[in-house]
Amino acid sequence: MASRSIPCTPVLKFRELPESELDRALDLAYLAFHEKPGAELRAHHRELLRGCVRVGAYDGDALVATVSAFPFTLSVPGGELPCPGVTFACVAPTHRRRGALTGMLAELFARCAAQDWPIAALWASEAVIYGRFGFGEGTRGFTVEIDSTRPLALRIAPDDRPLRLLSPADAPAQLAALYDRTRADRPGRIARTRAWWTDEWMNQKDEEDSAYSPPRVVALGEPLAGYAIYRTKRDHDAPGLVRVDDLEAESPAVAAALWQYVTSIDLTAKVRAWGRPVDDPLLLFAADRDQVRVTAGFPALWLRLLDVRTALLRRSYAAPVDVVLDVHDAHLPANSGPHHLTSGPAGTSYEPTHDPADISLAVRDLAACYLGGTTPTALVRAGLATEHAPGAAAALEAALRTEWSPHTVDGF
């Protein structure tokens, strides 16, 4: 019988993607995501990648997959942590299911460990993919739509100080201080550099944006007490749409004034705000919930605890806690096994132990709890965590609680 040769799948190699290969990386990303950007947007993406940690997967000399990470800083309960923002993750259609993403993330996680970055985050193009790599649903968002064919009905009096429009060129310098103050109140928010303000928030940079006006910025108060960044769109003779991209306010009355403003813009009939926090006060002070409707809810920022010990030590706790957590992490085994978490007036510790576990859970589910968006008791009820000691999940939940729900609206 004649022998048959069995095709051999080449072994992929994973290494740093040099700046000289950024155009190859962009070509691959546009192939994977079915995009055809213009020269200006391509130049924008190239500049973004230049500032990233970059990993490529190679089949011989051919670049077949990439992943990159922005060097972000994320607000966490009681402070902030360096948090690479994973982006431009793509695999050539010829090399799917060959371990490319697994290998690239392992290389990226190793680079994060070398930088002492204890957490990472991403927006998932397909939510089913990243849970198996240890990412959990760190924040959630709502899409809110408001019928603006009539005045916005409110249960509270809006702030009556004058509103003013800011030019996009001047806005970053004026908005940044308020954003930083309100950012500290909510976990899950990235620190915005001047370049991020200018290039991501004040720039008309993609095909979807081309249907809308340039960004408009309305501000209230002096010193600044609130602002909204919005765009408008009008189709021929039909009433237009106001798209609210960001709205920050230091009080409910300020928020009410800003919502009242965007719903009163002439020649528009609807306001749509994507990515609002799940505890947005608008949903309570709106007098007519038929006028203000939540039309979608979705996972937003996905969080990965790369170094569970450091992440838990560097956040604050709302109540004393003394539990043994048995965490399972298939990709980063150093995180696995029972550890004793204590926090109180003497400080916080998280150390390996031989004591029996009070709660067992996967690292992705601990990540979902880390910012306060998911509760341990909900995980137990869903069968995703096991409570071995009665009351342990409730005690951990009380410690992880945050005053405001975690939230982010910065996509990347």
From TrEMBL:
Homohexamer; trimer of dimers. The active site is at Y130, F412. Residues 12-157 form the N-acetyltransferase domain. Keywords: Acyltransferase, Transferase. This is GNAT family N-acetyltransferase. Belongs to the acetyltransferase Eis family. NCBIfam families: PRK01346.1-4. It comes from the Bacteria. Acetyl-CoA binds at A89, C90, V91, R97, R98, G99, A100, L101, T102, S125, E126. InterPro entries: Acetyltransf_17, Acetyltransferase_Eis, Acyl_CoA_acyltransferase, Eis_dom, GNAT_dom, NAcTrfase_Eis, SCP2_sterol-bd_dom_sf.
